[in-house]
Amino acid sequence: MPSASPAKPLAALPDDYVTRIQTAVDGARDVDALVGSLVVAGLTNVFLVGCGGSLFSFGPLRMVLDRAPVPVFTFNSDELLLRRPASLGNGSLVVVSSTRGETAETARAAAAARAAGATVVGVTQDPASIVAAECDHVLLHQGIEAKQVVLAQLGWSLLRATGAAPDYDDAMAALDAAPKAFFSAVEQTDDDLDAIAAALHDEPVVYVLGSGPLESAAQTLAVCYLQEMQWKHAVPVGSGEFLHGSFEVVTPDLPVIVLMGEDGTRPMGERVLRFLDRYTGRTHCIDAARLPLDGVTPEMRSFIGTLVVASALLGRLAEHFESWTGHSLRERRYMWKVEY
């Protein structure tokens, strides 16, 4: 049975929580000018490159760039180095992401992309990091929520510069409302997130499902927060693939977390929920459709809601797990400690 009470106090939200996101929103003009200049110089394709959570964080951006008139590819940093796609070269925009800028594979990938003739834009917190040093341009952020805002701005600016964003102004208005929307979403869902952590922190394994832009968010929760930071067995599965194999392990007591957005792939999540409701009583759903998102128009709810779930709510859920298990999110066995 799960323990009856948390092992340590829940981490408080930073005093500058809203300010960090607002700083990212305020950088929209700079991002727009940078991307516009790159498109004018000649853009043939886009590569999104990173490792782990930085790679997974591209999920919402990839959904935005579905409308882009140029090809968009997503690569693990080492994969880019080892596969060396023929389309990488002059005219390529390579966006590399590394939270602290210390990922050696990503620094090497950035250097290789520049050597191939690509323009490299780094998204990181540290302008003096090894990743930033290998980039032509650096976009800074303060935290996972702000990072999603920066990536979203980059995507919408690219669509605008390529003539694929007639609703660009609407998207920017939605981002203007984002700082308060992020904060109110965490406030509203905090009790629900606590209930999920209370129910699952002692479970031997947890499955995490998501579709579309939230499929990679399911990877973030399972791989980064639960496996890496909590040392818990967790399995991420795309909602679209769950019913093509993984569902055979479902038993009445199997715990599953389903991430749901309001984007076009929502029916995939609704389908797996219908199945899970029949065969297990341990389903927990984090649904963007339940968020208030004050100041966001109906047309932009799926856009902003995806950013909120993928960053703010999953990060806060991880803090609730930390509270219940007593295991610090910063504690590691191997990462940054041994050669690997």
Summarize the structure.
The protein has 340 residues and is α/β, with parallel strands linked by helices. The protein folds into two domains: 17-176, 3-Layer(aba) Sandwich (Rossmann fold), CATH 3.40.50.10490; 189-325, Glucose-6-phosphate isomerase like protein, domain 1 (Rossmann fold, 3-Layer(aba) Sandwich).
Account of the protein in words:
With 340 residues, this protein is α/β, with parallel strands linked by helices. The protein has two domains: 17-176, Glucose-6-phosphate isomerase like protein, domain 1 (Rossmann fold), CATH 3.40.50; 189-325, Rossmann fold (3-Layer(aba) Sandwich), CATH 3.40.50. Helix content is 49%, strand content 14%. It has helices at 17-26, 28-41, 52-56, 59-64, 77-83, 104-115, 130-133, 144-161, 168-176, 178-200, 215-230, 239-242, 266-279, 301-325; strands at residues 45-50, 72-76, 92-97, 119-124, 137-140, 205-210, 233-238, 256-260, 283-287. The strands form two sheets. A five-stranded parallel sheet has the order 2-1-3-4-5, with helices on both faces. α6 links the parallel β3 and β4. α1 (17-26) crosses α10, α10 (178-200) crosses α14 and α11 (215-230) runs parallel beside α14. The longest helix is centred in the C-terminal third of the chain and has 25 residues, at 301-325. It is globular and about 60 Å long.
